Amino acid sequence: MNELSGCTLLYTRDAAHYPAFRARIAALGGSALHLPLMTTRALPLIDADRTILDCSDVLVFTSAAAVHHLIEQYPLRNQQTVAIGKTTAAALPSPPTITAPAPYNSEALLAYWQPRGMRIALIAAPGGREQLAATLNKNNTVHTLYPYRRANPTAVWPDALPLPDIITIASQQTLNHLLAIIPQEKLKLLKYRACIAAISARVAQYAQQQGFQQTIFAEDASETRQIAAICRWWTQTQEQRHD
Questions:
Q1: What is the pTM for the complete model shown?
Q2: In which domain, by residue range, is 56 found?
Q3: N or C terminus of the chain: which is more exposed, having fewer CB within 10 Å?
Q4: What tens digit of pLDDT does each residue of 57-88 get?
């Protein structure tokens, strides 16, 4: 299979995920470069946070990182657990009470689950899932706890890094990290030439708002669907070039 022959992708998740992604892209005839744009840092829980957790009926985990950083500091008790996505669900020590259905995002969770009168702890990073918290808070008591924060592990755009055809972007903040480090002259080229392969329609829309001319998004929040969308876009692009 050479669906991605001649295609260069820039992968922006952390190093732990990169080898498997690179192998999948190579099997399709493409090449993957790596520029990590997202990492997480633990934030310590305070006593008030632990009290909120102890008194909560439900813990809503917004990412696998939220799971990891919370359970490092707090042993889960008898609370119900809700996971946004399969990866988040898999990170929990036992299967969650509820997992958001496809496309595994806040909107899908809210369409499936409308709790009332519950005490909910939303486990997230600062700046994330604010709309989810606001919606749940209409009929419940919601506290958002931050056992971690997101950070950019890359301080500058490497001079030797070639401009890619496609850049994978998993969140709005990941794109913000890219915008913060790339020189303006290269950014202008990227906005015109490169395609943003977003993990969701919301992230793709945000990329468009930042001026990127070409965006695609996965049918759900998984790398398998993201790669499928990339293959479709690259095939269409090559066909148009040869017309």
A1: 0.86
A2: 41-150
A3: C
A4: 999 999 999 999 999 999 999 999 999 988 99
